[in-house]
Amino acid sequence: MSQVLFVAWHSGEGPLAQWAPVGRLEHTPSGYRFVYTKGARKLKDFRPFPGMSDLEAVYESEELFPLFANRLLAPSRPEYEAFLRWGGFDPANPPDPLAILGVTGGERVTDRLEVFPCPMKDADGCYVTKFFLHGIRWMAPATQDRILRLQPGERLALMIDFMNRHDPWAVAVRTDRDEDRFMIGYVPRYLAYDINHLCRRCTPDSITVTVERVNEDAPLDHRVLCRMRACWPEDLRPCSGEVFEPLVNVQEVSSVCQE
Q: Which of 36, 185, 189, 190 falls between 20 and 30 A from 225, CA-CA?
């Protein structure tokens, strides 16, 4: 089975900001394939990526496209091993580049692009995903101190933030100890809709969120790696909306090399 990531784009800022998947990146036996999805038509200010100007083309390459390869640290960089550890990977056995992007998100301060994997069932039929805690930079100093005291395996809790002016699907994360409860951040936006659904359909004891790693030497957006496991309701269909559908049928259109 080929590995698939979706490419999301953030349009605008503040309460009027929009978000949608605009592309699908796939690792195939012959290399890499990229196609735009119908979400690219939904965002008014979205423009095709450099070297991929045709929204209805299929792009293929033996090497990972530069747009995504540039979001990975080169092995020659001194912080490369730390970068892998932040994501919970073994530096002695580096994974596929798409596996790294699927955890780190590939975000850069210079643009509004983010990549993410579509959640799948584990061997027990449960919803399992890992994500870096978002929004830490907006937390108060006391909260950031508490974040540094998180321990691997520590239980966390979810809170649906339905009055959030920036994202009506926002899901906050807090510590779960009675003596010092802190809201410490948010789940990534690309998971928020599914997690809202899970919180309403799964019993509380069938949802667990724990601290996977705390990276004290990492930038804030890679500071806390979390792991979530939940039931999988029969009607849950991650990444199945219209915005996730390819704009072109890969089987009917000839592929083109990157421009």
A: 36
Q: Which pLDDT score is estimated for 83?
A: 86
pTM of the model as a whole: 0.80
Instruction: Delimit the domains of the chain by residue range.
Output: 3-118+240-257, 121-230
The separation between CA 78 and the C-alpha centre of its own chain, rounded to angstroms, equals 25
Say which CATH topology domain 121-230 has: Alpha-Beta Plaits (3.30.70)
Distances (CA, A) of 41 to 18, 123, 240: 13, 36, 17
CB atoms within 10 A of CB 121: 12
pLDDT per residue as tens digits for the range 155-172: 999 999 988 877 888 999
172 contact partners, CB below 8 Å, separation of at least 6? 158, 159, 160, 161, 183, 185, 186
Helix (H) / strand (E) element for 83: namely: helix 80-86
Give dist(CA 101, CA 178) in Å, integer: 35
